[in-house]
Design a protein that fits this description.
Blueprint (H helix, E strand, L loop, with lengths): L2 H19 L14 E6 L2 E5 H8 L5 E4 L6 E10 L4 E12 L3 E3 L2 H7 L5 E2 L10 E4 L4 E4 L3 E4 L2 E4 L1 H7 L6 E7 L4 E10 L6 E5 H7 L6 E7 L5
Parallel strand pairs: 1-14, 2-5, 6-10, 7-10, 11-13
Antiparallel strand pairs: 1-15, 2-6, 3-4, 4-5, 4-8, 8-9, 11-14, 12-13, 12-15
The protein binds zinc ion.
Zinc ion binds next to strand 11.
Length: 225
Amino acid sequence: MNEQAIKDILADVVRKVLAEECGGRPGSAGMDAGPIPVEISARHVHLSLQDAIALFGADLHPERPLSQPGQFLSAERVRLIGPKGVMDNVAVLGPTRTASQVEISKTDARALGINPPVRQSGETAQTPGIILASSTGILGLSQGVIVAARHIHMHTSDARRFGLKDKDMVDVRLETERPMILKDVMVRVGDNFALSLHIDADEGNSAGWKPGTEGTIIGRSRGGT
Ligand SMILES: [Zn+2]
């Protein structure tokens, strides 16, 4: 065994002893409290009830539930129409919200010819608009297109286990064929959330995401609040 290996083992033992003294059992509490399932959020649209009626003449029809409790993929699909391109068959997620929002990747944005900022869901002030179309309706959104900022959904009990609270920022290592460290990942805590890290298609593809991919929190983000 070389000197570095011995040093690493000693450092690990010290870390575990300190963790015990701080009241946590090693491996069961704190930010290393286990892996987080990673899901890709493909491009999708959220609609207000008013906009759903404008496009489809009715509220959304659930097709299948999503991993977050209460959320569903609807049977409805829309076409996104930008200045430079269109995207067909885009998923609409329900239930309806107070404001419509379109979540796409930077690659999608380039193809559509718009330049949306990276934002947390719901933060749509000063974002670009887009045209939405269905087989029966067409609707111009004056704003609401974002590239969704990566985030971790945590149930309140998960947050306790990880020692984190709503809006904490953490760095996460993706355990993939092409491992990647994601900085500034926002933690969202709620009683209706299931533990899951949401990244977009660009992030997933760059890391080599596949079903079953997991992430590990490696620490709080520097400069995070
Ligand atoms: Zn999410």
